[in-house]
């Protein structure tokens, strides 16, 4: 048995270097044991000094595997190195393993990657800096206990967000320090080394109290998204219990303060004014210009701007989402926020080129409720969907896509004209009156909201399977 030793817990380049040498030596996965740092080798394990050196690439693997390995290498499961090498060994003979969601190695690594993504998200959400004095200069320090070895890969997020601060993040296995210009890493530390209280503690408590919405309180969901194990490091955690106790009273006060909607006749007059302005629309560009004056429903009053579709004016395929999100509303472009990133990755995995797609939304303005400094997404109602069908129908008329994909129930309702069940309709091509074919699947934001990693991975596979089916349809059209 060969003992392969790694110096670092989560260094992909180090693991790849060792894996290349193992491939050159023809070492089967069953002949290899992976050790890290000072971990003791077994009595009958030989060292890896006998492995041949190699400078160039050995064999080939899909880029998808490298991306997957970059995530998995951060997982805390000690078997991650062995499973990665086993899959790498198998990929030398079968390059299609990664497309097989039922493969045990592929499935296991996908779940590990999902766990790492979730851990990185929790670090971004739950790191809380505390102030410390250093030679008369104010600096910031934070303690965090990740489940996996995600600090190195996640910390660039903090260098971008807090670029003008001196700060450090301490975890049990490693630490990161930023001096406004340079990022350096050091050994791990202990929570007792972090100040128990800082000047920004009250700010966090005030912020949490401001964004707390008693009308949408679901304790089980809250504990899923903000696990109790993180509470001991969150200054705002001491506000949670009293806010929950007083939620009913707070909700009644919110209802009493609620604003009224404009009279129906006022909205009808606004719609007539817009109709007069859009009568001269003769092209997709005209429609994109005219939508800024849309007053067909009240959503325009709160949104930053209308978000029109984007893509080639003669695209063969049109993807229709629900509505713009926070980032889309600010940038004025569809699918550029977190859900858009999931969408981009999924269509790339399915072999679909986004540059050839027209992407838009069923509703063109962002519907939300303010919660402190945040804007929380709200689902459009039937009236708002119906009002915006005018613009979606214009896009379909001018683009003339051969395939239309409804992402989520709102988009499906807008395109079909009634509420439909995604689970019963997905994967089934539906002929529309204009001659195009409709496919229905989940919205990518649905994947972001699933807390359980296994469920999220399973739903992601179903989503990408839908996209693969659509890609196959595209290819058939191109050959016809």
From TrEMBL:
Q: Where is the Uracil-DNA glycosylase-like domain?
A: 308-468
Which SMART domains does the annotation name?
UDG, UreE_C
GO BP of this protein: DNA repair
- Note whether ATP-binding occurs among the keywords: no
Q: Which domain of life is it from?
A: Bacteria
Q: Which GO terms describe its molecular function?
A: 4 iron, 4 sulfur cluster binding; deaminated base DNA N-glycosylase activity; metal ion binding
Keywords associated with the record: 4Fe-4S, DNA damage, DNA repair, Hydrolase, Iron, Iron-sulfur, Metal-binding
**Which SUPFAM superfamilies does the UniProt record give?**
Uracil-DNA glycosylase-like (SSF52141)
Give the family from UniProt: Belongs to the uracil-DNA glycosylase (UDG) superfamily. Type 4 (UDGa) family.
Q: What is this protein called?
A: Type-4 uracil-DNA glycosylase
Which species does this protein come from? Devosia riboflavina
Q: Cite the source lineage.
A: Bacteria, Pseudomonadati, Pseudomonadota, Alphaproteobacteria, Hyphomicrobiales
């Amino acid at each position: 048995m060969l003992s392969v030793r790694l110096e670092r817990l989560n260094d992909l380049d180090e693991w790849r270097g060792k894996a290349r040498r193992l491939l050159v030596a023809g070492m089967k996965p069953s002949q290899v044991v992976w050790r890290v740092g000072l971990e003791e080798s077994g009595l009958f394990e030989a060292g890896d000094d006998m492995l041949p050196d190699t400078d160039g690439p050995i064999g080939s693997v899909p880029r998808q595997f490298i991306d997957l390995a970059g995530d998995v290498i951060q997982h805390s499961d000690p078997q991650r190195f062995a499973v990665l090498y086993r899959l790498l060994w198998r990929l030398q003979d079968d390059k299609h393993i990664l497309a097989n969601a039922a493969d045990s190695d592929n499935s296991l690594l996908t779940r590990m990657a999902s766990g790492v993504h979730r851990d990185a998200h929790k670090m971004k959400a739950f790191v809380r800096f505390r102030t410390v004095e250093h030679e008369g200069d104010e600096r910031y320090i934070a303690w965090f206990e990740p489940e996996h070895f995600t600090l190195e890969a996640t910390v660039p997020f903090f260098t971008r967000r807090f670029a003008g601060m001196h700060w450090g993040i301490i975890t049990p296995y490693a630490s990161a320090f930023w001096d406004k210009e340079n990022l350096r890493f050091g050994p791990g530390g202990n929570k007792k080394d972090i100040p128990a209280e800082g000047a920004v503690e009250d700010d966090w408590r005030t912020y949490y109290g401001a964004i707390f919405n008693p009308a949408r309180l679901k304790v089980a969901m809250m504990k899923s998204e903000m696990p109790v194990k993180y509470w001991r490091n969150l200054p705002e955690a001491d506000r949670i219990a009293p806010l929950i106790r007083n939620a009913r009273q707070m909700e009644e006060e919110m209802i009493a303060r609620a604003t009224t909607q404009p009279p129906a006749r006022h909205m009808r007059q606004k719609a007539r004014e817009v109709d007069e302005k859009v009568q001269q629309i003769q092209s997709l560009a005209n429609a994109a210009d005219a939508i800024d004056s849309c007053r067909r429903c009240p959503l325009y009053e709160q949104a930053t701007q209308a978000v029109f579709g984007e893509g080639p004016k003669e695209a063969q395929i049109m993807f229709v989402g629900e509505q713009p999100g926070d980032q889309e509303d600010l940038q004025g472009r569809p699918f550029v926020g977190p859900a858009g990133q999931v969408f981009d990755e999924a269509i790339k995995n399915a072999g679909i080129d986004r540059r050839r797609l027209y992407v838009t939304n069923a509703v063109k303005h962002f519907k939300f409720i303010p919660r402190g400094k945040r804007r929380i997404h709200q689902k459009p109602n039937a009236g708002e969907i119906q009002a915006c069908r005018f613009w979606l129908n214009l896009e379909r008329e001018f683009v003339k896509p051969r395939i239309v994909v409804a992402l989520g129930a709102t988009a499906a309702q807008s395109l079909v004209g009634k509420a439909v069940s995604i689970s019963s309709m997905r994967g089934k091509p539906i002929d529309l009156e204009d001659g195009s074919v409709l496919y229905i699947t989940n919205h990518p934001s649905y994947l972001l909201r699933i807390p359980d990693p296994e469920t999220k991975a399973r739903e992601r596979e179903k989503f990408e399977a839908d996209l693969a089916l659509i890609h196959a349809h595209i290819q058939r059209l191109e050959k016809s």
